[in-house]
Design a protein that fits this description.
This protein is an alpha+beta fold. The protein has three helices and 14 strands. The protein has one domain. 17% of the residues lie in helices and 46% in strands.
């Protein structure tokens, strides 16, 4: 199980916050997310399963790929995240995305070497909910700016799908 958790730790962008036990994400823009992702897709959540892993809970989310924006063709992917619920026990990971059953997302993902699952690049930064042409991203933790400054949590960001795809395509050149 340690081999399962180790790649997630490398992909996570957690930093200790100045106060308390919080999460801080690097302030990665769409170009940086694109650079770090090996597969960018629009996909629909078709199933979730939480399970015990060492002393925590992990959640595996299955998604049906509806469109590959960048990367190799795939019909279905599995995203593995730290946290979830097993009975009355809940492990919440501030700063990570909650992928809800039946919802559509544009996801920036990376596959750890030798693993069958994928991880979100940048936690909640790498998951944008799709509703028609509108993308909604919720980032509820502070960001660590490129100049070393601590930035406030941006909250809900709304972008257009066509704008995000243009940035991804420019960044892949």
């Amino acid at each position: 199980m340690r081999r399962l958790l180790a790649p997630l730790g490398l992909l996570g962008v957690l930093l200790p916050a100045a106060a308390g036990h919080s999460t801080v994400l690097f302030d990665w823009d769409l170009s940086e997310l694109t650079r770090r992702a090996d597969l960018i897709v629009i996909a629909k959540v078709i199933g979730k399963r939480s399970f015990a892993a060492e002393n925590t809970i992990m959640t595996s989310t299955r998604l049906r790929v509806e469109r590959v924006i960048s990367g190799s063709e795939a019909s279905e992917i599995e995203v593995l995240q730290l946290g979830g619920q097993l009975g009355a026990r809940i492990v919440d990971v501030p700063g990570d995305a909650e992928l809800r059953d039946g919802e559509h997302y544009l996801l920036f993902t990376a596959q750890p070497s030798g693993q069958p699952y994928r991880s979100l690049v940048g936690m909640s930064l790498g998951a944008l909910q799709v509703k028609g042409e509108e993308l909604t991203q919720t980032v509820d933790v502070p960001l660590f700016g490129g100049g070393g400054e601590l930035l406030p949590a941006p909250g809900v960001r709304i972008r257009s799908l066509s704008e995000v795809i243009r940035v991804i395509e420019r960044s892949r050149r």
